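Lab notebook, design round three. We kept the backbone fixed and only want residue identities now. Task for the bench partner: fill in a sequence for the structure below.
Input structure tokens:
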């Protein structure tokens, strides 16, 4: 077996700045070491797909993320791997255990995935190797992974067999819990159009802020109103916007604003708990709630019966606001950015998109690289944002 310290040293030496994932008994030593090691940021995710999205955000923020989990969690990883990291050419390291490995006795729930783990990685065009038990071979495997991620601009997986890593003691501080009172608007919702909100946000957000927008009309309208390097558009991986924003926020001191929808929030509701636990000051999660999956025909999301602001407060967000109008949003945003963080702002909007709305012509890979360059540039040299178009205009 290889010592857990060697594994973490290898990850750090090859550029990993963040580790996020879901426990597995095989992974216990690695997780315990990552929690205890100040050289990496460890984020306990609620779901493996969420960990992949956080890792993607870490790369977008200038670092390199490692998503870890049991091979059963590969099913949860499929969506962000194939619809976010693949089209945007975002590298990330995956550390996946091999429960149910053929030839080894294991529980029945691992049998099918055990037989298909490496085939699934191949099918997703994710190159992989086995985690070795000798430090010298580990360095070679990680160097190969680094080359693949650098040249192929894609994720790389390391498959971990049973009893590969020696036990490690867990040193983990208790999770602090802070009370949060939702600051609710006294006014009835005015239900602005989404494009009107986006236009106002572009005019009032700090010039050095990084913006992450959810898939669907939100990203398409943001692109139409003002396409700029500070914007990262999720073209897939619905429900992952907050996780990507959290990953970015771990790597930079810039303000980070996530523009989300009610459908996306509900799809990966567990992500709110992770953002609430690890989010920092300057991370703002803006939820535009029209109660619909609008870009697919207007089917109800069910958000009308859910207090999303209350859920965020219960999940550990430090500052939570309900908002009724664009002028109120303009008043709330500076306070939300300056608060203890993370902050959530819930704003009901009406259905309706810009007429003749197109799709981004810049490729996801181009968007990812110019966004990473923007985030990693010195703040004082950040280009001044162009004036956003009005809601009635489009490029």
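Proposed sequence:
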């Amino acid at each position: 077996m290889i010592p857990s310290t060697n594994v973490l040293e290898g990850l750090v030496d090859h550029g990993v700045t963040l580790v996020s994932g879901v426990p597995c008994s095989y992974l216990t030593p690695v997780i315990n070491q990552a929690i205890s090691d100040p050289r990496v940021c460890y984020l306990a995710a609620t779901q493996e797909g969420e960990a992949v999205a956080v890792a993607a955000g870490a790369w977008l923020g200038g670092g390199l993320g490692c998503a870890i989990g049991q091979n059963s969690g590969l099913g949860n990883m499929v969506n962000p791997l194939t619809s976010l990291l693949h089209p945007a050419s975002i590298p990330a390291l995956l550390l996946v255990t091999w429960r149910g490995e053929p030839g080894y006795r294991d529980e029945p729930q691992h049998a099918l995935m055990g037989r298909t783990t490496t085939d699934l990685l191949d099918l997703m065009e994710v190159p992989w190797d086995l985690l070795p038990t000798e430090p010298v071979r580990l360095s070679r495997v990680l160097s190969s992974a680094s080359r693949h991620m650098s040249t192929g601009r894609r994720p790389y997986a390391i498959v971990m067999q049973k009893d590969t890593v020696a036990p490690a003691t867990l040193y983990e501080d208790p999770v602090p819990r802070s009370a949060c009172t939702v600051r609710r608007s006294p006014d009835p919702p005015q239900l602005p159009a989404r494009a009107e909100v986006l236009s106002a946000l572009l005019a009032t957000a700090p010039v050095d802020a990084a913006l992450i927008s959810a898939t669907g009309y939100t990203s398409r309208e943001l692109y139409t109103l003002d396409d700029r390097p500070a914007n990262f558009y999720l073209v897939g991986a619905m429900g992952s916007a907050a996780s990507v924003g959290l990953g970015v926020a771990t790597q930079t001191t810039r303000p980070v604003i996530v523009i989300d929808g009610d459908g996306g929030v509900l799809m990966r509701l567990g992500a709110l708990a992770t953002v609430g636990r690890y989010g920092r000051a300057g991370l703002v999660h803006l939820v535009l709630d029209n109660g619909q999956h609008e870009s697919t025909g207007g089917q109800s999301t069910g958000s009308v019966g859910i207090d999303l602001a209350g859920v965020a407060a219960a999940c550990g967000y430090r500052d939570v606001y309900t908002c009724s109008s664009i002028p109120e949003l303009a008043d709330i945003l500076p306070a939300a950015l300056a608060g203890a963080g993370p902050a959530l702002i819930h704003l009901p909007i009406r259905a309706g998109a810009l007429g003749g709305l197109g799709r981004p012509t810049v490729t996801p890979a181009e968007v990812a690289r110019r966004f990473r360059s923007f985030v990693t540039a010195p703040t004082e040299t950040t280009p001044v944002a162009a004036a956003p178009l009005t809601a009635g205009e489009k490029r």
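Keep this in mind before ordering anything: The CA atoms of residues 220 and 359 lie 6 Å apart.
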